[in-house]
Amino acid sequence: MQPNFGKSLRNLAVFAPLKSIIAAFSNYSGMTARRSSVQSLYELCAKTFRTSQPLTQPSQASQALSSLMDTIGPGDVGLKDESTEDDRGHGVFGLSELSRTARWSQPITYLDLYECDKFTMCIFCFPTSAVIPLHDHPGMCVFSKILYGSLHVKAYDWVEPSLVRIVKGPENITVRLAKLVTDKVMTAPCETSVLYPKRAGNVHCFTAVTPCAVLDVLAPPYLESAGRPCTYYHDYPFSSFYGADIPDKEGEYAWLAEIKSPDIYMRQGRYSGPAIQP
């Protein structure tokens, strides 16, 4: 008797979509079973930052966190590399006139990944020429990883013991001496940068050379009531004011004056990467 494959073929036709669904579910289960990079980052942060006390110097803990962040790319956080797209508005490139970014230029987008009183995980997405002006991180340790694009970073550390001058004029200006730590363009892929409360460029500013994104871990986060406000500054060349003797080159120093918080053109975005499970 000739085998009748009709019924078997019909059964295969019925079960084929089901098999595809099962296969897809199996793949999805495998993906979800594997810990995502951001989940691993969260877990390491939770282990490292058990209190609100910051890391004050390089250590095995900071190295472990930096090494993990070094492996994270835009795809791991739900982003695509947009560094080749020219999205500039009428923004001004440069560090001396930070407040002149035109209002119709593209905004910086802020993505909140996770926040608690011990640490914050977030992403800043910059359009070309966007600027976050010179600001500090009092009593904080900050890890920054450029996910894509190029970013100009200028950073200072305060000179210790503190050297302060009051400049007489129409408005008395109080300036404090700081030493330049970094003044360069950083392009992804590059190593994670780490700043500490009193070293490695705690006072810094960012200017986007191309569209770029930066993954940040702040530990602990800003909290004014705990003595961690965000203060903004204007930097003056060392030669602008006299009365200080320095052993190094004048170009490596600047006077920083506190300014009012600028109106940064920024909007809240939606994080679309893997969910974090506390």
UniProtKB/TrEMBL annotation:
InterPro entries: PCO/ADO, RmlC-like_jellyroll, RmlC_Cupin_sf. Its EC number is 1.13.11.20. It catalyses: L-cysteine + O2 = 3-sulfino-L-alanine + H(+). The keyword Nucleotide-binding does not apply. Gene3D superfamilies: Jelly Rolls. Its cofactor is Fe(2+). It comes from the Eukaryota. It is an enzyme of class 1 (oxidoreductase). GO terms for biological process: detection of hypoxia. Keywords: Iron, Metal-binding, Oxidoreductase. One of its GO terms (molecular function) is cysteine dioxygenase activity. PANTHER family: 2-AMINOETHANETHIOL DIOXYGENASE, PLANT CYSTEINE OXIDASE 3. Belongs to the cysteine dioxygenase family. This is cysteine dioxygenase.
